[in-house]
Amino acid sequence: MNKNADFRTLCVHAGELKDTQHGGAISPLYASTSYAFTDVEINQYPRYFNTPNQRGLCQKIAALEGAEAGLIFGSGMAAISTALLSHLKAGDHVIFQDDLYGGTRNFIKTEFVKYGIEFSFTKGLEATDFQSEIRENTQGIYIETPSNPTLKIIDLKAISDVAKTASIWTMIDNTFASPVNQNPITFGIDVVIHSATKYLGGHSDICAGVVVSSEQTISRVFESAKNLGGSLSDYTVWLLERSVKTLFVRVQAQNQNAQLLAEFLRDQEWISQVYYPGLEDHLGHEIAKKQMHGFGGMLSFDLSESLDAKQFLLELELVKPTMSLAGIESTALSPRLTSHALLSEEERQYQGITPQMIRFSTGIEAFEDIKNDLLQSFRKIS
Ligand SMILES: *Cc1c(COP(=O)(O)O)cnc(C)c1O
What we know:
The chain is α/β, with parallel strands linked by helices. It is built from 14 helices and twelve strands. Helix 7 links the parallel strand 5 and strand 6.
């Protein structure tokens, strides 16, 4: 497979395995946990992240991110925790942006202290906010853009420049953008992580994670990964490969619906604010335009003061009020009541999460049907 093929072609064909026995059209599934020795040192084994299906899918996802290599994990958190721990030891320090995925924030706050790893959360989103947190023992910077749930944008190139000057690494959780909309390696970011439970899986039926980077960095992550043991079952690897084949068309449709929805909601008097990087008045619009191919399928909005967010969610008929995101079906939630419920009121205020906020993950349904569902719910509760 030509690595310079078009993104859409890579989605379908990169890393595919050939069925040499029967000539079948798709990658065969190799379920073996045991393989004949070809070399006494290196053998294939699921927890070594090197079975045929694992290697094939790693190649596909690495190709989509313009990376040299990758590893597939049993969840996004397995990918995040392993990537971080493989790069840290007691006494080290890491800089995180303030609004992080809740599970990541929880991992840092509960686990890092046990291992004597220091961390700080930045006060803002500018490169200078990260630079000012650099200490003598700082090893790296970890970011998420667009952020959850307020879709804040961080300048990838500026962050990578700050890190390179300080000779420290950078990692990004690229889940919200997906490889269709943003390829951080192009801007000098070292390690790209995905919760494949979201856009890569895309059908709300797979829990998985991915780390991609240079060969050298992936070898380093692997040294910890084989000890921590967070590999993904080959059955699910095989299913995830099928999902990634349609990644481009799914995310294009989701981008389009999100843009239409953001523009529609912006003009509604029952909505007080819309957060979507594709809107020109979004604070991060110019940077997003520079570093994203599309603005993504995630948006948030605030209902006007008189409307109750929980009631609004309960009256939806087509759109499902569910916890996860990025599936082909539209879903919505109240960050205050669910995804960000563990934060203190003060932390939520600091991140700009209001009681009126709805986080919306657009699916691939017809825009008119999504719009009409939101309108009928608004009418019922007003
Ligand atoms: C869901 C999610 C994760 C965690 O992924 P799991 O697959 O649930 O472990 C990490 N980061 C972001 C941005 C997510 O949305």
